[in-house]
Automatic annotation (TrEMBL), chain A:
GO terms for molecular function: calcium ion binding; kinase binding. GO terms for biological process: calcium-mediated signaling. Belongs to the calcineurin regulatory subunit family. Residues 65-100, 102-137, 146-181 form the EF-hand domain. This is Calcineurin B-like protein. It comes from the Eukaryota. SMART domains: EFh. InterPro entries: CNBL1-10, EF-hand-dom_pair, EF_Hand_1_Ca_BS, EF_hand_dom. The lineage of its organism: Eukaryota, Viridiplantae, Streptophyta, Embryophyta, Tracheophyta. Acts as a calcium sensor. CBL proteins interact with CIPK serine-threonine protein kinases. Binding of a CBL protein to the regulatory NAF domain of a CIPK protein lead to the activation of the kinase in a calcium-dependent manner. Homodimer. Interacts with CIPK. The keyword Repeat applies. Gene3D superfamilies: EF-hand.
From TrEMBL, chain B:
Its EC number is 2.7.11.1. One of its GO terms (biological process) is signal transduction. This is non-specific serine/threonine protein kinase. Belongs to the protein kinase superfamily. CAMK Ser/Thr protein kinase family. SNF1 subfamily. InterPro entries: Kinase-like_dom_sf, NAF/FISL_domain, NAF_dom, Prot_kinase_dom, Protein_kinase_ATP_BS, Ser/Thr_kinase_AS. Residues 319-343 form the NAF domain. It comes from Spinacia oleracea. Keywords: ATP-binding, Kinase, Nucleotide-binding, Serine/threonine-protein kinase, Transferase. GO terms for molecular function: ATP binding; protein serine/threonine kinase activity. It catalyses: L-seryl-[protein] + ATP = O-phospho-L-seryl-[protein] + ADP + H(+); L-threonyl-[protein] + ATP = O-phospho-L-threonyl-[protein] + ADP + H(+). It comes from the Eukaryota. It holds the Pfam family NAF. Its cofactor is Mn(2+).
Amino acid sequence: MGCSISKKSKANYWDFASLASETMFSLDEVEAVYVLYKKVSCCIVDDGLIHKEEFRQALLRNKGKPDLFVDRVFDLFDLKRNGVLDFGEFVQSLSIFHPKSPAADKILFTFNLYDLQHTGCIEREEVKEMVLAILKESDLELPDEVIEEIVENAFNEADSNQDGKIDLEEWKEFVGKNPSLLKNMTIPYLMDVSTVFPSFVENKIMLI
Amino acid sequence: MEKDVLFGKYKMGKLLGQGAFAKVYFAKNIHTAQSVAIKVINKQKIVEQPNMMCKIEREISIMGRLRHPNIVRLYEVLACKRKIYFVIELAKGGEFYAKAAKGPFTEELSRKYFQQLISAVGYCHFRGVYHRDLKPGNILLGANGKIKVTDFGLSAIKVIKDHIRPDGMLHTQCGTPAYVAPEILRRRGYDGAGVDVWSCGVILYVLTAGYLPFNDPNMMAMYRKIYQGDYRCPTWMSDDLTHFLGRLLETNPKTRITIDEIVHDPWFRKGGLFKDKGPEFEFPFYHDKDRKDLDDGFLCHTVQQLQQQKQEVMGEEASTSTPLNAFDLISFSRGLDLSGLFNKNYNPFEDSEKFISGFSEDEIISTIREVAAELDVKVHMTKKECVMDLVGSIGNFIARVEVNQLTENLVIVEVKIKGGDSDSVSENDIWKKKLMPKLSGLIYDFDSQHVEEIDTATEPELSLAISVD
């Protein structure tokens, strides 16, 4: 429609080479991520930007219903805090999930992710809220005392100074002991994103 | 990155061969110095078909797990925008075609090759993989002179050939029809196993006679001969062989000899099968001598690989069973798994269900083993404790079950089912309709918690009773 020209200029606006130099991605990989970005960014509104609803739909395929975790990830991706993701934000944030990205970046990302209220600490209520959300997502019901027990156990382990909240230092130590907590923080697929098999599926879909 | 190093990994060497749609190069893995062959297919030549990508992914993931001395190993599949690269085992003895052209061979030598061929074909059929294009051109020779069949499962990839005609598939399917079974020519639905048996018959004929059983410079005349099963055995062939060929080249696929019957044929068995020829001649074909071997090496996104990668990320510590903490639980969320962004087919565990149980990890694992045994489903424990894969009788992946301690008295059981394409529907049914109902006794019921507390003693028996049902 009328915005097709501006869309085009948007695409050309991004300097893939400098994005590649700023991130863990090679130039080829940035191009491959762009293919993905384009696909996600036009799935509801074809304006060359990823809206929250589009992000939800791409991840959960649930028609863009609100989801605590997806929305948190989106907010962290939204570096400019303007409610949409442009390609630069998308590449930079996704780069943290690259297998080659330093663990410190990944740890910091999870810390911010779980610090729902942006208080600089992960608090009991936040953990409980997330546990409730994941149980709901999995169609599991647990009595309140079991949930309290689960939260309590986590704090006994992670909150080394026992002040009732987990700060960044405590979080680093806790993740050090439980490396599986970073499992979502590496997307193996991002290694050689332009070359591994599924990308060829991706490209194929683009052609059709 | 050097230009002749493919994906920073394979140093490309000379062209080894060129087929109608693929070029094969020598290459060396620069990290391991392993010599390989790389088959390059141009994507533009691939015929678009519905569900093709799902099919290809499925077949490739099975092919990657095939380990047989007479099958060319597939190590890895890579792709870029325009090309697909199949990284395969280098067959050092060259093409069987060149050797076969020097025939005819004695019946003993022909039998030796044919037994290797049937061993390979039977092994694949047992795992649900069919070749559908067996011919001497797809057979290579290993360094020890043993045959190695290549391109198993690649028939899912249909390639536009030069002589494509508007009227359809037949002409796109096969370069030469000489090895093609009559039911394919009739264009009825056909069964991959029977088609492969026919082609093996043609190959055996070529080895022992020195020329094609069905041949005519006129293509239509050749079709007619195949269709009618019109061939003649040379007089020097033994009666046993002539009879055997008659069973292999039986035009009716329903009455054609099967792999199981081939193995019992007198000509095939002559001179003994098992003792002096090494373990690869074990029939039937479902002996995986070393199961562990199946769990490594293949880099396409098989279940094994995902598990491996996850373990690498998690580190070895995670492989001992530690209770799940609140954050482990949270990280189950699909919303936090960004690999979901890339492709719905990417994550092999599209569907997952969880339930809470008051039984111990060991009790749950043994119950699942019992139920699985009844349904002829194999249980493979993975490297990680309390994680098991359920695999069907033909090596088809059904589900992965993971048991984790949640609190002192409760465990969480997560069942991951391969999602996505329609091919896996039947596997999902095996879980949902057969396995899961029998496990329902394990699920912890909080509503009736206090009632059960009175007769907890009966509960294990209850679940046993259900599983025996």
